[in-house]
């Protein structure tokens, strides 16, 4: 191998020198400073191809070197013992032929002073802006409340999902018909807790539209408490399994997503699952709820449960099934309303002072 000198590019700041050695795939590097002179020796691909390269630089003043090698080049940072600008790099006035300015990093002293001045102005302006924004003394309490709420809901729906999955593997299709009796208590708890998602926007804790949140929670609670909870005949039907399972599949990803959003953390996989799984699960859940409503219509007509009393001339009473039929018409004629509601409510559950958020 020939012994050659690589191209070296330099730039400085008040307290340090930057050297960039144009040597790729460097190996066997030997970099040292003796009596204020930098000695470099190493193998790599430079201007003359794959060879061994060396050079030495006698600095103008005392220094302390550090170096870092990458696949494309060798970077050497030299700290000045005294922080001030040098009029030249080397002790000798004549610049070595292999040395050239690094224009990508080159700044004059006035450039650096202007850069520091701009940064200081930006810092002062940011402080002024922050000082104008009133600090919320209860921000920590809001974060803690929202974090614990989402954590409790996540644990509740996780229990339902795991319980139903295990029973499905053990009992097969037989698990469809006793889903209500095995998981209803936990589902009652979770859906009663969900009422807080209607209260939170009223209290200003989250940036959620009140009406969409009310429609979402009310729709589920009608299915759970009225159709499943009040009609014993519905509790043994397979549709209960599909409604509960689809609900829990959505929530085991939604609530941890919100929970991490409260503390300013994001898992990309969880974010992808949260915004992707609802695309098939939301319409499937809507269909399962519609099936439950259709199966309950005749039962409400027979039992006259929740029927509205009417004068005898008008027929005696108005069955609650008519309200459910209206619900079905709205569900299938205005599907875009439900999709837009989901999109509007699918941001993290954070305090209003932190970031945009919502529920779905």
UniProtKB/TrEMBL annotation:
Taxonomic lineage: Eukaryota, Metazoa, Chordata, Craniata, Vertebrata
Pfam families hit by this protein: PTPLA
Gene Ontology biological process terms in this record: fatty acid elongation; sphingolipid biosynthetic process; very long-chain fatty acid biosynthetic process
Record-annotated membrane-spanning stretches: 145-170, 209-231, 238-257, 326-345
UniProt keyword Membrane, yes or no: yes
GO cellular component, one term: endoplasmic reticulum membrane
Gene Ontology molecular-function annotations: very-long-chain (3R)-3-hydroxyacyl-CoA dehydratase activity
Bilayer topology annotation: Multi-pass membrane protein
Function summary: Catalyzes the third of the four reactions of the long-chain fatty acids elongation cycle. This endoplasmic reticulum-bound enzymatic process, allows the addition of two carbons to the chain of long- and very long-chain fatty acids/VLCFAs per cycle. This enzyme catalyzes the dehydration of the 3-hydroxyacyl-CoA intermediate into trans-2,3-enoyl-CoA, within each cycle of fatty acid elongation. Thereby, it participates in the production of VLCFAs of different chain lengths that are involved in multiple biological processes as precursors of membrane lipids and lipid mediators.
Major enzyme class: lyase
Protein name from the UniProt record: Very-long-chain (3R)-3-hydroxyacyl-CoA dehydratase
Domain of life: Eukaryota
Coiled-coil portions: none
Pathway(s) served: Lipid metabolism; fatty acid biosynthesis
Domain CS: 3-90
Keyword Coiled coil part of the UniProt annotation: yes
Record's keyword terms, sorted: Coiled coil, Endoplasmic reticulum, Fatty acid biosynthesis, Fatty acid metabolism, Lipid biosynthesis, Lipid metabolism, Lyase, Membrane, Transmembrane, Transmembrane helix
Catalysed reactions, semicolon-separated: a very-long-chain (3R)-3-hydroxyacyl-CoA = a very-long-chain (2E)-enoyl-CoA + H2O; (3R)-hydroxyhexadecanoyl-CoA = (2E)-hexadecenoyl-CoA + H2O
Predominant cellular place of this UniProt entry's protein: endoplasmic reticulum
Record family assignment: Belongs to the very long-chain fatty acids dehydratase HACD family.
């Amino acid at each position: 191998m020939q012994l050659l000198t690589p191209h070296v590019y330099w730039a400085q700041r008040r307290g340090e020198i930057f050297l960039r050695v144009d040597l790729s795939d460097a190996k066997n590097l030997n970099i040292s400073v003796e009596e204020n002179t930098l000695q470099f020796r190493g193998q790599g691909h430079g201007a003359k191809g794959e060879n061994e390269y060396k050079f030495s630089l006698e600095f103008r003043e005392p220094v302390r070197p550090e170096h870092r090698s990458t696949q494309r080049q060798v970077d050497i940072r030299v700290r000045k013992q005294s922080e001030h600008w040098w009029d030249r790099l080397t002790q000798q006035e004549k610049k070595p032929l292999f040395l050239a300015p690094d224009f990508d990093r080159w700044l004059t002293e006035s450039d650096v002073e202007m850069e520091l001045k701009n940064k200081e102005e930006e810092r002062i302006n940011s402080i002024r802006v922050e000082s104008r924004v009133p600090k919320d003394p209860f921000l920590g309490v809001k974060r803690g409340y929202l974090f614990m709420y989402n954590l409790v809901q996540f644990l509740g729906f996780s229990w339902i999902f795991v319980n139903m999955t295990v029973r499905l593997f053990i009992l097969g299709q037989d698990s469809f018909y006793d889903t209500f009796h095995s998981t209803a208590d936990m589902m009652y708890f979770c859906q009663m807790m969900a009422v807080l998602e209607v209260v939170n926007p009223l209290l200003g804790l989250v940036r959620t539209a009140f009406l969409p949140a009310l429609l979402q929670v009310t729709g589920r609670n009608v299915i759970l408490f009225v159709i499943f909870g009040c009609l014993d005949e519905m509790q043994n039907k397979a549709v209960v399994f599909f409604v509960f399972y689809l609900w829990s599949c959505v929530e085991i990803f939604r609530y941890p997503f919100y929970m991490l959003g409260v503390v300013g953390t994001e898992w990309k996989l969880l974010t992808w699952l949260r915004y992707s799984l609802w695309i098939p699960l939301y319409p499937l859940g809507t269909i399962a709820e519609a099936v439950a409503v259709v199966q309950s219509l005749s039962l409400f007509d027979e039992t006259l449960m929740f029927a509205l009393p009417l004068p005898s001339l008008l027929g005696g009473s108005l069955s609650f099934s008519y309200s459910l039929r209206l619900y079905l018409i709205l569900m299938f004629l205005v599907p875009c309303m439900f999709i837009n509601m989901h999109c509007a409510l699918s941001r993290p559950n954070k305090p209003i002072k932190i970031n945009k958020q919502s529920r779905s």
